[in-house]
Write a structure and sequence with these properties.
There is one protein chain. By secondary structure, this protein is α+β, with helices and mostly antiparallel strands. The protein has a domain at about 10-70: Nucleic acid-binding proteins (OB fold (Dihydrolipoamide Acetyltransferase, E2P), Beta Barrel), CATH 2.40.50.140. The protein is built from one helix and five strands, in the order βββββα. Strands 1-2-3-5-4 form a five-stranded mixed beta barrel. A hairpin with a 5-residue loop joins strand 4 and strand 5 (about 70).
Length: about 150
């Protein structure tokens, strides 16, 4: 039985490092399970999940030309097929929703026409709001420093 990518095998943990675990496979070959392939969740310390001598089921992820074998424990576990999401509710047709009437600039369906402010109106509103905010910030800052006319000595 040759070891090929995609096959599931039984193996025995022979060594543990900070980056993964070495697993002895059939035919005496050894592969590495990287720490990110041990579980579906974040694994800070691999020693919490595996011990030397543990029997594990692994899936062969890759076999490199130099003989290194990449393994995964989390991919070897068959997960139940997730249910598909229910279909999204359909949108109402265009005739049901009020859409802008490009010719008149208003809305269909008896709603009040909306007046879009001009650029100048938007700019003057922005400047007014900015001045109000700056004034508020200056007042708060001056009160913390001792206000106007406070003598420094």
């Amino acid at each position: 039985m040759s070891i090929e990518a995609g096959s599931k095998l039984q193996g025995k943990v022979t060594g543990i490092t900070h980056f993964g675990a070495f697993v002895e496979l059939p035919e005496g070959k050894t592969g590495l399970v990287h720490i990110s392939e041990v579980a579906d969740h974040y694994v800070k310390d691999i020693n919490e999940l595996l011990k030397v001598g543990d029997e594990v089921t692994v899936k062969v992820v890759n076999v490199e030309n130099d003989g290194k074998i990449g393994l995964s424990i989390r991919k070897a576990i068959d997960k139940p097929v997730e249910e598909k999401r229910p279909p999204r509710p359909s949108r109402p047709s265009q005739s049901d929703s009020p859409r802008p009437n490009r010719q008149s600039g208003g809305f269909r369906g008896g709603s009040k026409p909306r007046v879009t402010p001009s650029f100048e109106d938007k700019m003057s509103r922005f400047l007014k709001d900015s001045e109000e905010r700056l004034t508020t910030i200056k007042r708060q800052t001056e009160s913390k420093r001792g206000g106007r006319g406070a003598k420094r000595g």
